[in-house]
Amino acid sequence: MKTNNINTSLPPHYTSLAQALVSLFGNSVAITQTDRLSGGDINKAYALTINTGDRIFMKANSKSNADFFTAEAAGLSAIASTKTIATPEILCTGTDDGEDVGYSFLLLKFIKSAKARDDYWEVLGQELAALHKADTKVLWSDSISCDSFGFFQDNFIGARPQVNTPCPSWISFFRDNRLVPQFKAADSYFSPEDRNKITKLLDNLDKFLMEPSKPSLLHGDLWNGNVMCGPLGKAILIDPAVYIGHAEADLAMTQLFGGFPQKFYDAYLESNPIEPGYEDRRDLYNLYQLLNHLKLFGPTYLGPVLSIVDEYVDQL
Predict the structure, then answer these.
(1) Exactly one of 221, 239, 250, 283 is catalytic; which is it?
(2) Nearest 5°: phi and psi at 15?
(3) What is the mean pLDDT of residues 223-237?
């Protein structure tokens, strides 16, 4: 019988930071130093040093945004369950009423970076290929087809909701759960002519995209900023927006903002070859990410979005 292993192995959730620390490290635990860390535009980040000598990485947000962290924990747990590529060790999630205002938090084992191995990018390519080839059946409950696309819960792409309603067709999933919600959210940017082109594109996605030979677990937001070098000199994936989809969508995202070195792609393709014509599909996958940036950051991204729409509609 299939079981939803991820859903049943999520980290504990506590109702205060003090409760979390005592449960994890014992009654005598105390924070000896708190350092605010830079980076990230959604959550606050801290390094907590405790009297055991351990360091903890803590993300914090408003109490109302606790779903950010339970979703991130589910995504990290899903990737970790494949035993293919490293992710931060999750300690717990929680909320805390605080002295002045409530907050939510995610505690992770602190990662101390080291010098990257000489084969850093090749190993990352091989390990990402292994993630994409991993069995996704165990991620679903018995009530959902193991060949579905999506995830057992919705999550977030950046600061915005990401719909993961399971669907048996990749093309339908990408249209209904990826492009359609983003186009609707950004509708105020589009002219009537733009909307006609968008409708035409959405009605003809099957002319450009293809169903994968197998579903793949995706990181979902795979760019340089979400990959860090761990203590063994190998890559660790952080800040996922996971779902089960087409492996090409992850590859496309790696090329959207500068790209990874060619040795990464060579190693990936040697381990997990892709169907011919990927370059013709890549911009369509990245349309989702650019639409999300349009909604988050404004009209700077409108030109690239409309350019991609025109690129495909002109072929119809």
Answers:
(1) 221
(2) -100, 5
(3) 95
Q: What are the tens digits of pLDDT across the range 52-91?
A: 999 999 999 999 999 999 999 999 999 999 999 999 999 9
Instruction: Give the CB-side neighbour count of residue 82, counting CA atoms within 13 A.
Output: 26
- Which residues are paired to 99 by β-bridges? none
Amino acid identity of residue 202, one-letter, is: L
Report which secondary-structure segment, H or E, holds 275. none
CB of 60 closer than 8 Å to CB of 54:
no
Whether residue 178 contacts residue 288, with contact meaning beta carbons closer than 8 Å, is answered with yes
- Give the Cα separation of 248 and 291 in Å (integer): 18
Question: Catalytic residue at 221?
Answer: yes
Give residue 191's region: left, alpha or beta (phi > 0; psi -120 to 50). beta
pLDDT single digits (tens) 94-146: 999 876 778 999 999 999 988 999 999 999 999 999 999 999 987 765 545 56
Query: In this structure, what DSSP letter does residue 91 have?
Result: E
Please name the amino acid found at residue 220: G
Tell me the torsion sign for CA atoms 242, 244, 247, 253. negative
Query: Which residues make beta-bridge pairs with 31?
Result: 50
Instruction: Find where tokens 């099957």 sit.
Output: 206
